[in-house]
Amino acid sequence: MDVCGIPRTQVYKVPGGDGAGAAAGAAGEYESLIRGLSADVVGVCLRTGLPALDLVLLGSGADGHCASLYPDSPQVCVSPSSKLVVEAAGKGGTTFTLDLIQSARNVILSAPKAAQSKMVADAFNNPSASSNTQCPAGMISAGVDTSVEWLLSKESASLLALV
Predict the structure, then answer these.
(1) Cα–Cα dist 118/130, whole Å
(2) Rounded distance, CA 125 to CA 43, Å?
(3) What top-level class would CATH report for the domain 8-152?
(4) Which residues of 32-63 are buried (b: 16+ CB within 10 A; e: fewer)?
(5) pLDDT recorded at residue 5
(6) Which of 43, 60, 75, 135 has the least C-beta neighbours within 10 A?
(7) What DSSP state is assigned to residue 3?
(8) What is the pLDDT of residues 85-129, one digit of tens each?
(9) What is the reported pTM?
(10) C-beta pairs of 92-96 under 8 Å, 24+ apart in sequence
(11) Which residues have CB under 8 Å from 158's CB, separation 6+?
(12) What is the rounded CA–CA span in Å between residue 144 and residue 121?
């Protein structure tokens, strides 16, 4: 059976596991899978040389976290990284690194809640947002071969300066 109209042979789930070290093992296994995919499945980002996923869709939190990358966590503070998938800080799961996210062809960040308005303003108005480890969502920026779009509501965009 297909998943959302996508053949199962084209769905690449993160491996699961229980016990100590399971998340780190799953991260390594999933990274190997991504790196091993052929160029017609996952291209290469010309800017970074890393695999280029077609789309990374992310939610974000009022604290600026996204993709289980939390403010000032080790996963955010170590960049550039040679890793693509790492253990999520304090979550027991895995997450993509900022480097892999920013190598994607398209990144969509969702921040629709009024409580996210300060974070959205910090992400857009801070001239050093791309290196602000206190707001990982704001660190994701467009570049050559990477389009970044934010999905905002009137409420979450309320602190943005209108041009």
Answers:
(1) 16
(2) 32
(3) alpha beta
(4) eebeeeeeeebbebeebebbbbeebebbbbeb
(5) 84
(6) 43
(7) B
(8) 998 877 778 999 999 999 999 999 999 999 999 999 999 988 888
(9) 0.89
(10) 92/22, 92/23, 93/14, 93/23, 93/26, 93/68, 94/14, 94/23, 94/26, 94/27, 94/30, 94/68, 95/67, 95/68, 95/69, 96/56, 96/67
(11) 114, 117
(12) 24
pLDDT digits (tens, 9 = 90+) for 26-55: 999 999 999 999 988 899 998 889 999 999
φ, ψ (nearest 5 deg) of residue 66: -155, 150
User: What is the C-alpha separation between 4 and 154, in angstroms, rounded?
Assistant: 30
Q: 77 with 84: CB under 8 angstroms?
A: no
Of all residues in the chain, the percent with pLDDT exceeding 70 is 92
Instruction: Provide the token pair at 116.
Output: 């996210």
- Amino acid in the structure at residue 100: L
Domain ranges for the chain, please list them: 8-152
